[in-house]
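FAQ

Q: What does a record look like?
A: Structure on top, sequence underneath. For example:
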């Protein structure tokens, strides 16, 4: 609610007035006197993702994933190899100039990452999603007892629907095209994670360009831009006592020779001298995979989803 992606909590009458723009008693009713309010219900569940609770709408059990699935893949998300492919193209260009001119040494390049703040929930959609939950601390108007259903309207894409992925991915795909063609920004995204390659001499101009584009699209990046933030500044100011106590959430990583991207460490340290980029899985990722494989060995079972996730 604080970020404007969710309405205030309503009771049922308030909800109907909000979404139908009319008084509930004026709504069309069926022969049994029930309000004719077409909708499809989905369950919501929330797995624990590294101590973070993420509500997910079950688009499979209510059939919407089946109905909305696309028969062709519009956008192919990139992999952790993207920065290496960009580095390779730059290396080739300097080693073998297309105009036949003399070979030149490759300038130092860097890699940065950014994350879109609440990407799905901010994605522009033509409709809306209604969320309902039982709150034991709300007084029910009808009965006078404690406990009632509270309703919210969400204006963004539901998390958990296949169609949300397809719909969202069109947005960064468009932004990447604009950033590359109009601003020579070497960037691409995996869902809501951006990877940006740039020349070290350019400092952070491409990352700043992407930030401006996101601001213009009204889809802010999860970068705090505070002067004391080491993620957002090459030379951060010392934080005050108050700022130390209340660190802002910031997912930005500045241009550097190293970056974490999609569970891998991308290392550009040797690219100018050897043309090689080192890609290695993060230590935490290795530990998690080994732990999950230990569990499989104990259960004598490896599920298809776990195999797909870890063995690729
Ligand atoms: Zn920051």
């Amino acid at each position: 609610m604080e970020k404007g992606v969710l309405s205030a909590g309503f009771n049922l009458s308030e909800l109907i007035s909000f979404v139908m723009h009319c008084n509930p008693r004026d709504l069309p009713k069926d022969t049994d006197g029930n309000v004719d309010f077409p909708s499809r219900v989905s369950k919501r569940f929330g797995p624990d993702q590294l101590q973070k609770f993420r509500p997910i709408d079950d688009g499979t059990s209510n059939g919407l994933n089946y109905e909305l699935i696309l028969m062709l893949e519009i956008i192919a998300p990139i992999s952790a190899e993207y920065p290496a492919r960009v580095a390779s193209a730059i290396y080739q260009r300097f080693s073998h100039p297309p105009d036949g001119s003399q070979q030149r040494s490759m300038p130092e390049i860097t890699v940065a990452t950014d994350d879109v703040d609440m990407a799905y929930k901010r994605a522009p959609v033509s409709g809306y999603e209604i969320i309902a939950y039982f709150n034991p601390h709300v007084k029910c108007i009808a009965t006078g007892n404690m406990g009632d259903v509270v309703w919210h309207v969400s204006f963004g894409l539901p998390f958990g629907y296949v169609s949300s992925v397809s719909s969202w991915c069109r947005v960064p795909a468009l932004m990447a095209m604009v950033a590359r063609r109009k601003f020579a920004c070497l960037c691409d995204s995996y869902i809501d994670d951006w990877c940006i390659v740039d020349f070290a001499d350019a400092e952070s101009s491409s990352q700043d360009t992407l930030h401006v584009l996101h601001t213009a699209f009204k889809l802010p990046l999860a970068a705090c831009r505070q002067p004391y933030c080491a993620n957002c500044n090459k030379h951060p100011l010392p934080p005050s006592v108050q700022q130390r106590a209340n660190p802002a959430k910031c997912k930005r990583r500045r241009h550097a020779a190293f970056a974490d991207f999609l569970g891998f460490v991308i290392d550009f340290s040797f690219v100018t001298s050897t043309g090689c980029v080192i890609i290695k899985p993060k230590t935490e990722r290795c530990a998690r995979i080994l732990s999950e494989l230990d569990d499989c060995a104990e259960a004598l079972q490896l599920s298809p989803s776990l195999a797909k996730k870890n063995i690729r």
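Q: Is there anything notable about this one?
A: The chain has a mean pLDDT of 85.
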